[in-house]
Amino acid sequence: MKHWRKWIWWVVIGGPILVFAIWAIASNERLFFVTLLNSLTLGSLYFIVASGFTLVFGLMRNVNLAHGSLYLLGGYVGFVVAERTGWWLLAVAAGFAAAAVVGLLMQVLIFRRMPGEDLRQTMVTIGLSIVIADLLIWIFTAQVHQMDPPALLAQPFRGLPLINAYSSYRMMLLPLGIVIGVLLWLFLNRTRVGMMIRAGVDDRGMLSASGVNVNLVFAITFAIGAGLAGFGGVIGAVELSMVPGEDTRLLLASLIVVIVGGMGSVTGAAIGAAILGLAETYGLAYAPTYSVVFTFIILVLVLAFRPRGILGRPA
Amino acid sequence: MSAANWRKAMNSGAGRMAMTARPAPVASISVLTGHRESEPVSWIGFVRGQISARHVIVLTLLIVYPFVATPFFTFQIAAQALALGMIALSLAFLGGYGGMISLAQMTVAGIAGYVVAIFGTSASEAISLNWPWWVVVPFAVAVATIAGALIGWLSVRTEGIYTIMITLAIGVAFHYLTLQNYSVFNGFQGLQRVYPPTVLGIDWRSPIPFYFLCLFFALAAYCAVKYVIRAPFGVALQGIRDNPRRMRALGFHVTAHRVTAYAFTAAIAAVGGVLFTWYNGLVTPGSVGTSWLINVLIIAVLGGMRHPIGAFLGAIVFVLLQNFAIDLVDRERFNLVIGGVFLAIVLFSPDGLVGLWMRLKRRFGGVESR
Predict the structure, then answer these.
(1) In a domain, B210, yes or no
(2) A73, A145 in Cβ contact below 8 A?
(3) Which range marks the domain in which residue B86 is found?
(4) Is B127 inside a domain boundary?
(5) Which value, to the nearest 10 degrees, does the dihedral of the CA atoms of residues B288, B290, B294, B299 take?
(6) Contacts (Cβ under 8 Å, ≥6 apart) of B184
(7) B251 vs chain A: nearest CA distance in angstroms?
(8) Overall average pLDDT of the A57-83 stretch
(9) What whole-number distance in Å separates Cα of residue B273 and Cα of residue A251?
(10) Cβ neighbours of residue B105 under 8 Å, at least 6 residues apart?
């Protein structure tokens, strides 16, 4: 019985997608595969940003709605550093560090003072996101900033079957996302701090009762989560360019990724990011005016049948 | 139930109690139901019981106000604050009495505004259907109410902070839909020149009639909320806010109550949205964008969600800041000011201005009021 139901789901969801894929490949195979690459690389960026969001949420039950602002902050800091020094790697490190420091300050100065008050913490992050966004507009103006890709990746990647040439920077995003995912998995599953974080996700009270300094674990997690947003910001600064408004876009992406994938699960974030990237990019390529509707339908379907997300566990 | 789940339930219950420090829900229910059973109050008796001297004073001031103030203060400040206050009131009711913070209330208001613009008259001849106003306005409110109920139906599957996330996602998705779609929503430009009609020889767009139009509906919404809070439905809703599990055990249909609360507030937000669209004279993707979704939350939190009047107080402060922040700080730094004020309120007075007022009253020996 159960076996049958699983099959029905595969047919109901996979069937239309398969039909669409066959039709799209038959009509214009290059467009289909370029879109596939685009969506996977965009999903990779979404994963990097959203994994920080889900990490913080999983441990602290803190919906950090300032996550998008941290993304933008990291991007701008990376932009300035790259302009001054010309080193792309240094820019990435600076973006990560800047966002991590701001995240750390938020945790130490504000959230530690209101433990257990989820709603109030969330409202504070809303206030912070408004203030940070306005400060960034003040400093960097509302103009579009775009970073140059590192010299090594400036040339397009040639010689691919079907597609011919593809931006090598975008191409790099895919392995980068995978590397970050693997590193995060190793960190969470193979190190002592990661073990503490996982224990904290399951039962905060028990973790602190067994003698672990929970505040320290919280601070580390928040710094890493915020840092990932800043890291994504620098990467996105090349890919998507930086303007006020990008922060809400990435915040929305993180929210949807985490809702679809399941809150607090890094693997779930990877699945959610891939789904969102595919839905958004294919929507834009094949039905431009309604691309948001596809994302929304996915959100509705997931909420209707799996309210906690695909890999979500009871909170 | 496993031990971990049980502990979590206990913790969250205790946390919520500590956070809001409301009177014990069960006691208030029994008192109220007892009250209802012992003396079935009639409509008029209920109204008379609710009105006191300060209500009369405030109402008189509100009626005299437009004849004293300049058109700028009547239209730009007061009428806007009343329209925004209604939208914030819908959120304050949901959040304060239903325990559900929905960021999609502005989306509901925006849907009402878009329906008025699409089915009524606007500058975009190709889109607007030019229906008469007495069909369009009730239709807009109905559509927005249904939309609000659907949003509620989706988001009541989740609780607490999850609700914020999902309603935010829904709201932003609608924003992008209006932004990207040109055939119905006219994209970035939105629909311009959406004005209130001229009825009974009065141009309802001129400041004083528009003020009274807003005042009438704002008062109606305020009274409706006041009434519902004391009605069996509202009392049950507050019970569900405080302990859904116990209410379910008592035989209440928790989901139905929550979705009904969404529909009720959606109707208020829709009327507010129509008025706000008329006030602006246009409806654009910007008016359902993230900043407005959050502004409504700011207004509700600023005023305080523990009393329906808070939404209107918050709206007045918000509109005053919006208009005069330029005099206080550098131009264009309004968001910094409003964000800072919001942060200060959330950090230092979680119950907003109403909470601040009650604290002052208590300190200076006033009577404890509800």
Answers:
(1) yes
(2) no
(3) 51-289
(4) yes
(5) -40
(6) B118, B127
(7) 23
(8) 84
(9) 26
(10) B87, B88, B90, B91, B94, B148, B265, B266, B269, B293, B296
- Within a domain: A257: no
Q: Which of B19, B180, B183 sits opposite A291 (nearest CB)?
A: B180
pLDDT band at B26 (very low <50, low <70, confident <90, very high): very low
Does A22 reside within a domain? no
A129 min Cα distance to partner chain B (Å): 8
pLDDT of residue B370 exceeding 60, the answer is no
Contacts of B8 in chain A (CB under 8 A): 315
Q: Indicate whether B364 belongs to any domain.
A: no
Q: How many domains does chain B have?
A: 1
Look up the domain containing A154 and give its range: 29-243
Question: Quick check: B10 pLDDT over 50?
Answer: no
In the prediction, which pLDDT does B143 show?
A: 92
Q: Which residues of B touch A299 (CB under 8 A)?
A: 166, 169-170, 173
> Closest residue of B to A65, CA-based?
B165
Beta-carbon separation of A255 and B170 below 8 A: no
Contact B165 A258 (CB under 8 A): yes
Q: What pLDDT score does B47 carry?
A: 64
Q: Is residue B316 part of a domain?
A: no
Q: Read off the pTM.
A: 0.77
How far is B15 from chain A, CA to nearest CA, in Å?
6
Classify B117 in phi/psi space as left (phi over 0), alpha (psi -120 to 50) or beta.
alpha
Q: What percent of chain A has pLDDT over 90?
A: 3
Q: How many domains does chain A have?
A: 1
Whether A62 is covered by a domain: the verdict is yes
Percent of chain B with pLDDT over 70: 82
Q: State the average pLDDT for chain A.
A: 81
**C-beta atoms of A255 and B11 within 8 A:** no
Q: Do B169 and A259 touch (CB under 8 A)?
A: yes
Residue A300 in this model has a pLDDT that exceeds 70 = yes
**Residue A270 belongs to some domain of the structure:** no
Question: B363: part of which helix (H) or strand (E)?
Answer: helix B352-363
**B21: phi > 0 → left, psi -120 to 50 → alpha, else beta; which?**
left
Q: For residues A273-291, give the mean pLDDT.
A: 82
pLDDT band at residue B30 under the 50/70/90 scheme: very low
